[in-house]
Amino acid sequence: MAVFQGMKERTIVSWTSVIDALAMEGRGKEAVAVFEEMKTAGVRPDDVAFIGVLTACSHAGMVDEGYGYFESMRMAYGIDPKIEHYGCMVDMFGRAGMVERAMEFVHKMPMKPNPIIWRTLVAACRAHGRLELGETITRNLLNEYPAHEANYVMLSNVYALTRRWKEKSEIRREMSKRGIKKVPGCSLVELDGEVHEFIAGDESHPQWKEIYMMVEEMARELRRAGHISATSEVLLDLDEEDKEVALQWHSEKLAIAFVLLRTPPGTQVRVVKNLRVCSDCHAAIKCISLVYNREIIVRDRSRFHRFKNGSCSCNDFW
After folding, report:
1. 192 φ/ψ angles, rounded to the nearest 5 degrees
2. pLDDT averaged per 10 residues, the chain (length 318)
3. Which of 88, 98, 200, 251 is buried most, with the most CB atoms less than 10 Å from its CB?
């Protein structure tokens, strides 16, 4: 923002870059304010700028504002929405828990929905308990795109959430038969110019014993603070106690434990993850930021999360 405000000349690219950055931080109102400032400055928004402002509304739960911008594309600017804009709208409805409205929106699209839109809808179904609908959509995806790893993983996860372990095993066998492997989640941190990579349950780090001890201490402190593990996130046939243990060793928690061990109190923690952070880790990291008085920034597959004093910049529209 400081660089942007110091620019003598601003193009549509400059404006859009700022809007996109604010969207990824969950700062939807600020992103919308910049979008409106751009229009006031006489810069006409293009289709890419609209993707930015729709993403900002989606990541901040600003449904009414987002729908208004979507409608204005054609009405005020003569821009026909592309499939990316429809995808932003489906994502926005889904994050806000409006699964039926998202489904209705997909059915009214003037073009055929692509797999990304369907997978976005499945993610919303999973997050908001519409597992039967999610299973139906995923099965259709699997029939149409049998070689895509994500479709198998999504269906496997739906079976696990509904405790249909036999069906889950069958899907995993089918993946193995086709040579399809699930991408493992990993978290990266940089310390003193060196990058450290962590995978769930990994014992390859030279300090893994100390890290595991720190994770156990974190778990005790979180329990004292009232944190309850989201065991529904463990998609394995285990009892509740074992599920809690499985959640404890997620890669984000290992990475954070390592930084807590190696840095003085008050040092900012920065983690990069290759997948989207799970709901249990999201809730746990909020609590860690409060208990240990640390600002923790997690860059996952789709956005930045800034955890501080027990809350996250995404306001839980993650």
Report:
1. 55, 40
2. 93 95 88 96 95 93 95 95 96 92 93 91 85 85 78 78 78 80 86 93 88 92 79 42 55 94 95 88 92 95 90 81
3. 88
